[in-house]
Design goal:
This protein is α/β, with parallel strands linked by helices. The protein contains 44 helices and 37 strands.
């Protein structure tokens, strides 16, 4: 290379320049790299020619390696390839035969295996395709329990199939895993050394989750270095084997938030290894990891270089990922470090292995852009730009080019020139033929990156290699595909990029735009990034200078009164602000203010209301520092929880702004004054969610925040006024529940109530409404749950423990969705408990004002005492598994996270709202029985499932009576509109917050549906009705009929046939109800989701609907509405009723195929009805708003044990007849997002 590329040497620290480049525009970087790359047309022509020769050499080999044949045949573009990858990922750790058989069946049954055999396929691949096809058929046959010999055949054949499958997967993994031990690796390396290879060994495994893991990995690295040192025969480290070290393996908390204590510890450990490596002339390389860990890795490297023992040592290495947008300025910083070291650094240049996870993380966090390029061609261009800089500065760098791409190889040779020594690197199992050719060329050396360890410990590495080989975009995949011509493979990245209209890949939406055309994702903060961290700290510091006061705010006026201090739950002595409580008179004033404002606010066009909410969202982001500060100081939230709090509030504003403009709202009108009673655990997010929903629907609001967190609520109300909400339309009345809450619930102007809190309080509100004859007043109650997670033996334990730690202990366990009871399969329980205990020990509990605190305080003295009392009981009745140690805790309300093993699921009969995890075991054959136990608990808020068996996950998700289900991820952090949140049973009434039905509940139809009314059947009623003695029997039959119907309404064609069979006016009603339901309800739809995840939203019938309506029109519509939403229906006719639906019963039951799906009965005594209602587990009761018995009915229903039973009005639309469910699935759990990699 003739011209040296200058290193950037600005004055001062280079770190801010690297930080600024993290999310730099791809277009800007493209221009810079194209301008700097010193390759003209003639050079590119030579590169193409060399590349073509290499491709022809590789493709002309007599026989492709078996692994290349296999991965070319079963790439990730085929369903079969995907399933085989998933099977490989999970089977080796699935030790018990029951789960292993289920896993094999799940992945092999139903594949189109014969498509991989016959003409056009190699003999070996044809044989494998036919073998897999026969395996599929045998599995299907032996699974059929109706066949007499099937069970016996399965018992005899399954062990053989398990053995064969495990052997095949072991053979597959051996193509990428070099050896099990270092001694074996050294011996095997001798064979390759004769061909000219040297090695970099890596003792691979998952990142450390515990101190024990970290010590084990460090010992492995030490032993590896000792073994390599014994075979280091050259004084030049470039000629000896080396080792690669992942820093995340050396400490369980290797993350930027913990940098202050982690960096010194890791530096001390590395320094010992480095001194030993220097003495032996062995190079050690700090491996690359996720982008969020780059800054802490740089801190470790800088600290290591500062050690005087390493001055002048030419054996220290660092890995640079070309797909990161900050790669080039990172090289400038590394050059500076080499000068500090007074020796060149080994720089292994790679393209990067975590691309899909970086895309996912940026979308989930709402970052301004991606830290990586969105087109592979941009990564290829960056790779060459980095290579050029490395080659241009031999005084600073010993470059090592890790690539299997022939164009990259040829371009680097062109940049280096003919006489320059070059070291290329390849992964073991990849690029054999290419690098074999390179070794035959002068001045070229090749180093193999060789993972060492057991198959089980190397699973994540194995799957990453399969992804790299099999993805459609992979060069390796294209290379072995004969349909891809050499001209495509040899195209240079600059020419390839010129074919696109934009440099940015718009098939991958920007992080804040993955919701597509609906709305923007809330802006996030990357607290692992120094710039964001400094900005966040500045916001806290500025907010700390302000004073905070909560007072009743009525029509925009703040009412003075007796001020009471608000203390920091982490430091009792610290006063955060002051609050003034409202009283009954102020409640009356607020209600009157809201009532007067209702008319003008409800008449404002929906677009204006939406604009005001959008303005509120923008103001929340602008004033984020204030709300972060109050979330930390008043609510005791950690930094990351404070970020989530504000982002969720922003999302609610934008979501409901969009919803109020939806077509379903065209014919709806507001209700009046809505009471919003919010909790302390999400004092801004839930508060704003309730208030903005009510406002979006056109209602006015009186809001009562939790007593513990009223300061942040007052700031939110002021913000809403600033955003353009009518001052009188949203009012604040702080105070306790007994006085202020009671006055609001009992107020005659209360049109609806939104409540989040305990199940007991929700039931009290329901009873109070019923006592006043207002059972039909809308009550949206979101309560807690005994939330479970089920873990079977196919789950990856390291991934599972991460999910458990966050689900159970984030926010000090003070989330409605938090994990309370963990159900672990017996076969892995002991191993998992050790891992969990170690991970809990690594947590840090402390003042949330400090970034490195993982767990903050619980909210107040009462909460602390309640949790402490429960822990005392557990000390006597359960086995302690682990705890987080107290570290210099002062005067706050701190409870250290604990975990206990129980004997049975039923041992936990109530929600413990804090950092207490309960664990039970189950056998492999009891998986589905765990769902029955969860359902029997009556709670149904969240459920986690950790399993690689898709069929098991799907069946569990369908069977569980739970609102939010999370598969292979944590079960907290529902995103507005992406995971609509809310439960059923004892966990809430519905509808889901942040879901499509919420605003419907806060509105009413402007006019009744234009539906034909059938003529009454003029038959003597005595001949059509049965006695009241049979009511209990009819109820039981109706409940059983609904269970037979299943979990949804999938029978539109049957319903339409039924409508045709009935004919007449009622047939028309059925058809009209189907059409209306389709307009209002959506079932089994995929919601917009971040990369690597799917979210499926569905609805199902509530159960048996008992109708007490007597008007023929109301009954006919209610019956049709119940049936078309998947409910069974029982009409109770009372004395004097002329309603009769007997003519419709037989056709409906015949069409559904379920006897007693629709029934009717005459009951003359109200007491008979009141006696039955408290007993039966019905779905809902339906009445007319003017029913004279509504007071008696309401009181009986409200007093009923168990869940709050919905009381439907005859005019209620379809949304009131259903439960909602959201199933969230981490589709990248097995190692990567295949759809994204194939894009």
């Amino acid at each position: 290379m003739k011209q040296q590329i200058p290193l950037s040497q600005p004055k001062g620290d280079l770190r801010p320049i690297i930080d600024a480049a993290t999310w730099r525009s791809e277009s800007t970087l493209h221009s810079q790299m194209c301008d700097s790359l010193k390759l003209d047309d003639a050079a590119w022509h030579r590169i193409s020619a060399v590349s073509t020769v290499l491709i022809e050499y590789i493709r002309g080999a007599p026989k492709l390696p078996v692994i290349d044949q296999f991965l070319a045949e079963y790439g990730l573009s085929s369903d079969e390839g995907i399933e085989l990858m998933r099977l490989a990922e999970a089977l080796s750790r699935t030790i018990d035969p029951v789960t292993a058989d289920e896993l094999i069946q799940d992945k092999l049954i139903g594949g189109d295996w014969l498509s991989h055999s016959g003409a056009g396929h190699s003999v070996l691949m044809s044989i494998s395709g036919r073998a897999l096809h026969l395996t599929d058929k045998w599995l299907q046959w032996s699974k059929d329990t109706k066949r007499p010999l099937a069970k016996l055949s399965a018992k005899m054949g399954n062990p053989i199939l398990r053995f064969v499958t495990r052997t095949a997967i072991k053979a597959l993994s051996s193509q990428f895993v070099f050896a099990t031990t270092l001694d074996q690796a050294i011996k095997r390396a001798d064979e390759y050394s004769r061909q000219g290879y040297v090695f970099s060994f890596d003792m691979l495994g998952e990142a450390a989750r515990t101190d024990s893991d970290a010590r084990k990995y460090y010992a492995a690295y030490t032993d590896a270095l000792d073994a390599v040192a014994q075979h280091a025969n050259s004084e030049d480290p470039r000629q000896n084997h080396g080792i690669s070290i992942k820093l995340s393996a050396l400490h369980p908390r290797y993350e930027y938030a913990q940098a202050s204590h982690v960096v010194p510890k890791i530096t001390k450990l590395l320094l010992r290894l480095a001194i030993k490596a220097r003495e032996a002339n062995v190079q050690i390389t700090i491996d690359a990891e996720e982008a969020e860990r780059l800054d802490i890795s740089m801190d470790v490297l800088a600290a290591l270089i500062a050690a005087p023992e390493l001055k002048g040592w030419q054996g220290l290495g660092f890995v640079v990922q070309a797909y990161q947008r900050r790669a080039l300025p990172l090289l400038d910083w590394l050059a500076e470090q080499s000068r500090n070291l007074e020796a060149p650094l080994f720089i292994r240049l790679v393209k990067g292995a975590y691309w899909d996870s970086e895309i996912k993380r940026a979308q989930e966090m709402g970052l301004e852009s991606y830290p990586v390029f969105t087109r592979k061609e941009m990564t290829d261009l960056s790779y060459l730009a980095c290579a050029q800089k490395l080659l241009s500065h031999p005084d600073c760098f010993h470059p090592q080019f890790a690539t299997h791409n022939v164009v990259s190889v040829a371009a680097i040779q062109e940049l280096a020139g003919a006489d320059r020594p070059i070291e290329f690197q390849r992964l073991f199992g990849m690029g054999q033929q290419l690098h074999g050719n390179l070794l035959s060329q002068p001045q070229i050396s090749s180093r193999i990156y060789a993972p060492v360890g057991t198959q089980k410990n190397l699973l994540s590495y194995l799957i990453r290699r399969l992804l790299e080989n099999g993805a459609n975009s992979s060069f390796v995949h294209k290379l072995v595909n004969p349909d891809v011509g050499p001209s495509v493979l040899t195209q240079d990245p600059i020419s390839a990029l010129a074919q696109y209209q934009t440099i940015e890949n718009h098939r991958i939406p920007a992080p804040r735009e993955y919701l597509l055309d609906t709305r923007k994702n809330a802006a996030g903060w990357d607290l692992s990034h120094p710039k964001h961290q400094a900005h966040f700290q500045k916001g806290l510091d500025e907010a700390e200078q302000q004073s905070y006061l909560t007072a009743p705010i009525i029509a925009g006026k703040e009412i003075s009164g007796d001020q009471q201090p608000v203390s920091n739950p982490a430091h009792h002595s610290e006063i955060v602000g002051f609050t003034i409580a409202a009283n009954k008179e102020l409640v009356d004033s607020a209600m009157e203010s809201a009532h007067k404002a209702f008319g003008s606010w409800s008449r404002r066009p929906a677009a204006e209301r939406a604009a005001a909410l959008e303005s509120a969202a923008n103001l929340l982001e602008q004033r984020a520092g204030t709300f972060h500060y109050l979330a930390v100081k008043e609510a005791g939230k950690t930094w990351s929880d404070a970020v989530d709090e504000v982002r969720e509030a922003v999302d609610f504003c934008r979501y409901y702004a969009a919803q109020t403009m939806a077509q379903t709202m065209d014919d709806r009108s507001a209700l009046g004054v809505v009471i919003c009673i919010s909790p302390w655990n999400f004092p801004l997010a839930i508060f704003m969610g309730q208030v903005t929903a009510a406002l979006a629907a056109g209602n006015s609001v009186v809001a009562k925040p939790a007593e513990q967190t009223s300061l942040i609520a007052a700031e939110a109300i002021r913000l809403l006024h600033d955003a353009g909400i009518d001052a009188a339309a949203v009012n604040l009345v702080p105070g306790d529940g007994a006085d202020v809450g009671e006055a609001l619930v009992s107020h005659p102007r209360t049109a609806a109530i939104c409540f989040t809190g305990s199940t007991a309080t929700a039931k009290r509100i329901s009873r109070r409404l019923a006592e006043r004859g207002r059972a039909l007043t809308p009550l949206i109650a979101e309560t807690g749950g005994i939330n479970a997670m089920i873990v079977d033996s196919s789950a990856l334990l390291e991934q599972t423990v991460d999910a458990v730690i966050s689900s159970a202990f984030q926010s000090a366990g003070q989330r409605c969705s938090a994990l309370r009871i963990l159900c672990v399969q017996d076969d892995i329980a002991d191993e998992f408990k050790v891992l969990l205990s170690g991970a809990m020990d690594a947590l840090k509990i402390g003042d949330p004002w400090q970034l490195d605190s993982d767990v903050g305080p619980v909210i107040d003295t009462d909460a602390k005492q309640n949790i402490a009392n429960h822990i005392k009981r557990l000390e006597v009745t359960a086995q302690k598994i682990g705890s987080t140690p107290a570290r210099n805790l002062k005067d706050g309300h701190f409870i250290c996270p604990v975990a206990y093993e129980l004997n049975d699921f039923a041992d936990l009969d109530r929600e413990i709202f804090g950092p207490v995890l309960h664990i039970i075991r189950f056998s492999a054959k009891e998986k589905m029985a765990m769902i029955d136990k969860i359902n029997q608990s009556g709670f149904g808020l969240t459920l986690g499932i950790q399993s690689r068996i898709d069929g098991i996950c799907n069946t569990m998700a369908e069977k569980a009576e739970v609102g939010n289900i999370y598969i292979n991820r944590n079960q907290i952090g529902a995103v507005v509109g992406v995971q609509p949140f809310g439960g059923q049973g004892l966990s809430g009434t519905g509808p889901k917050a942040g879901g499509p039905l919420y605003l419907l509940r806060l509105t009413k139809a402007k006019a009744s549906d234009n539906i034909a009314t059938p003529e009454p059947v003029l038959v003597p009623l005595g001949d059509q009705h049965q006695s009241s003695a049979n009511l209990a029997e009819h109820v039981a039959k109706g409940i059983e009929a609904h269970l037979q119907w299943g979990h949804g309404f999938h029978h539109d064609s049957d319903l339409m046939q039924m409508a045709d069979a009935i004919g007449g006016a009622f047939g028309k009603i059925i058809n009209q109800e189907i059409d209306l339901r389709k307009l209002i309800l959506t079932d089994n739809i995929a919601l917009a989701s971040p990369a690597g995840e799917t979210n499926i939203y569905s609805v199902k019938g509530r159960g048996l609907i008992i109708s007490m309506a007597q008007d023929p029109e109301a009954v006919s519509v209610a019956c049709a509405r119940a049936v078309t939403t998947g409910n069974s229906f029982l009409q109770i006719n009372r004395e004097g009723s002329t309603t009769d639906i007997s003519a419709w019963i037989a056709p409906i039951n015949k069409a559904t195929g379920i006897e007693n799906f629709v029934q009717q009965i005459r009951v003359t005594k109200l007491s008979d009805i009141l006696e039955q209602l408290p007993i039966a587990p019905i779905g809902a009761i339906l009445v007319e708003s003017d029913d004279p018995d509504i007071l008696a009915l309401g009181n009986v229903i409200a007093a009923k044990k168990g869940p709050i039973l919905p009381v439907l009005a005859a005019a209620d639309s379809h949304d009131r007849f259903v439960h909602e469910k959201t199933v969230t699935r981490n589709i990248a759990a097995a190692g990567g997002d295949i759809s994204l990699l194939n894009a």
